[in-house]
Amino acid sequence: MTGHSRKADMAVSSVLTLIGIAWTVEVFRSIPAGAGGGDVGPRAFPLLYGVLLIMLSAGWGLSRLMASEEPPRSAPPSDVEAEEGTATDTPKARIVALALTLFIVLLYGWMMTRVGFLLATFAVVLFSTLVILRERRFLVIGGMAFGITFATWLVFEVLLGIPLAVGSWINLG
Amino acid sequence: MTPKTMIRAIVAAGGLLLAPALATPALAQFPDKPVEMTVLFGGTANSIAQVLATELGNALGKPVVPVSRPGGGGAVGYSYVADTRPDGYNIVWNSNSINTAYHTGKIPFDYQKFTPIAMVSTEVPALAVKSGRGWKSLDELKAAAMKMDGKLKVGISGKGSFTQLVSAALFDAMGIGDKISYISYGNGKAPVELMAGRIDAAVQWPGQYKSYVDSGQLDVLAVTGKKRVALLPDAKTATEQGYDVDITMWRGLAAPKGTPPEVVKALQDAAKTAVESPAFLKAAKNLGFDITYEDSAAFGQDIAKDDAFYAKLLGQLELKKQ
Amino acid sequence: MDHFLTALQMALTPYAIGAVGLGTIIGLIFGSIPGLTFTVALALALPVTFGMDAVPAIALLLGTYIGGMTGGSVSAILLGIPGTPSAAATVLDGYPMTKQGRASIALGTAVIVSTVGGLFSLVVMIVSVNLVSKIAIDFGPAEIFALVLFGMSTICGLSSGSLMKGLIAGVLGLLIMTVGIDKIDGDNRMTFGSVNLLQGVNLLVAMIGLFAVPFIIDTFVQHRHGGLEAPATGSLKANLPSFGLMWRNSWLMARCAAIGTGIGAIPGTGGAIAAFLAYSHARRFSKTPERFGRGAIEGVIAPETANNAVTGGTLIPLLSLGVPGDPATAIVLAGLMIHGITPGPALFMTSETTVYAIYIAVVVAYIFILVFQLLGIRLFVYVLRIPQQLLAVIILVLCVIGAYTVRNSAFDVYSMGVIGVLAWGLIRAGIPITPVILGMVLGPTLEGEYRTAMQLSGGHLDIFYKSPVALLFLGLSALVVLMQATTALRERASKRLESKNA
């Protein structure tokens, strides 16, 4: 995957370098060092990884900075790349989908502990089909929400006896 | 799966629709719904918990569901249960880890956040060495350690782990506390490391040594409890050999503080019935733990006594954080 | 021989066979559904076995273990979401094959080579359990550290584009796993006073986030803009791999089975490292390494043979030494213990019959796998007919269930979401995900074994260079890194030359 612009690569490497620096500083500050001798201590490895991350990310960024020109795309495009970057796939669409997915996962986790697994699943599936997929066919919406909720309940709770999350406010099943 | 669970599935499916209408009033006889038992560790702790939960469920008339909440040396599970409603429907399969987790700074609260229900079992660590080293007793090990140039390498499960606390107490009582170098192993690998000769001794659980003792490859020099262990009847206690050490790991049940006494009583009685069941006796024999039932009051006193003991021990080891 | 006949009678009762069959199905289902993992399946199966006789109980657990290990490849191939960490290497070539409409060939190959790998390792175990367990004892912390470092070096071969990006990804994986309580000293690391962070990041939860969440996000992105093409139903026929294909690759299978068995026999390493080592081995010794990562069948054969060969290999330390190799076998160990079968050297003297019965159960499990999965391929491939946006919602629910059930913690659901979003960002930035999972799998072992080794030696590094085995693996790691670096430099030089000439 050499098709990324130099600018984007530089941005990513800067972010990763900053993460590395923040990590290293916090590790150094908060984890006690080993006693010495045979005791390597709990700090050595996280510190090493942090420093490695800084060096690698910064090194990558620098190498992109030094590169005088965009490297030619020599590798034949693989299928993975072919699928990405379709014309319809705009940056804004990506951000929206990203935010919605994160929101729905966090909401799901939070709701499970409040209203129990069943209601949370129903609500989340309903939300996903209606808002994220913008589905308008009633049969699909209803089928998904009821179908998935019932199927997961039947399989996990009843047949397999997995203890699913129970709600602290209300709880069904 | 089985026809029985299939039927349960169908009945339960119908029940779901009716459940809100039939919701029972709050003052019903305990328990009127399944009890959730939080399990903090895998391995033996989990195996005992699974057997106990089944038997507890039989005794209570409602299922007891063991739910695994591992991590943080018990901190995650203790925090979860401590925050639940004190109605007896959330109990925890606890152990000495409540004392050590507090004093090593893993949880911000101590054992007083819980109401003891009953002590159920105890496990006793054991000290083993490779056969053929010429050490048959603690005295011989002590003599060898004194003569050694370097330090005696002792395999444990990790710093601050129960096996290290036991080792520290034992070797201090033997007067060779400063001749020991601790080596941490996960995954129960210490017996293999003994066999390979990379360490000189190991303090682990009897079940891990059993097969090696039977095949004559390892010798168990001491167990650290008051009584000998059924699994290794030939292993003497440290007290028998003149060293005053009596540390065992207990396991038991506790509920959040504020649980009504009659609910605690119901759970305590169920625990008594459960530990006397044949299935539990069989599990005790196979897994190598002792059944040590104690009622709520006695259990509470033991936890308090232990808490002071571990506070002191962890302080000596410089592991005490709060 | 008497023992063997008794064992046959014990292991081939309808009840015991049924138990293996049930276990295999449960394992296959949990392994093949994205989000669910067979470690959870084993934890569920354990209490069910308490009421059973010893042999059926162990047969059930082994069936679940083996079924899960094999099932992990299904979602790896169909959706690019590995069912177990051991199947992460299978994604690299299996998923591209699905995109080319060759899903059923990949699935069929995976089943067959899994069975071959599994049975190979069983044979090795039967004939050489004593020898292998002696070798396993010789692998101390220093040797295991060196071996794991060698496993890490396969990262170099995984990052198709730039070595640098692969290494960054690997370091990120290593870094994440240090959060939580340090296993050796018991100190809190990077927990910021949070009890939830004390438990650290769970490998399985992270794996779900890394692979499944980006899949969901991408599907949503494309669906919102109508860019979602009809699924590649072009060749949904359940084509099975030809005999010729299998025959041509038999030597590769043999080598990868040997790698898997060997790795499995060393406690503390496990399926993932075996699969990655086998993959990079296959690529390195291939005449056409450039096909790898673009749907090469060898890229499915190698990791799938190896990760199932681990199942037999891992039984060696489990039964002969009582040491479980990973969380999954730890549950099998618990199942053995509760039925009064204490693994260790005495097991082969006192319970020879049970040991034979275990061997037979493994064989039966593989027969079941072959039958179920070859029949199931039609069904599995059918998943691709489900409109992909709806499939994404179903996977979302399954992943949340999966992440939650690992430790029954809502925190794990949150961390799955966050890791998934970050993973999507990394993929966008062209940083590969597979090295992250490799770093996460190997990180804890790498650190733990190094520190234990240093405790043993009192801080002297000579523990590493005085051991021939450790030295061998350290040398191999250095060799791999060196070779990769020179290849990369040469490629860059030739590219520069090309662009000048152009």
TrEMBL record, chain A:
All copies of domain DUF1468, residue ranges: 16-164
UniProt-listed Pfam families: TctB
Record keywords: Membrane, Transmembrane, Transmembrane helix
Signal peptide positions on this chain: none
Transmembrane segments: 48-67, 95-111, 117-133, 145-170
Keyword Magnesium: no
InterPro entries (alphabetical): DUF1468 (IPR009936)
Name this protein carries in UniProt: Tripartite tricarboxylate transporter TctB family protein
Organism: Roseibium aggregatum
From TrEMBL, chain C:
This protein's UniProt keywords: Membrane, Transmembrane, Transmembrane helix
UniProt key word Calcium: no
Record InterPro entries: DUF112_TM (IPR002823)
Top-level taxonomic group: Bacteria
Segments crossing the lipid bilayer: 15-46, 58-83, 103-132, 144-177, 197-217, 256-279, 328-349, 356-380, 386-406, 418-443, 463-486
Positions of the DUF112 domain: 19-438
Name used for this protein in its record: DUF112 domain-containing protein
Biological source species: Roseibium aggregatum
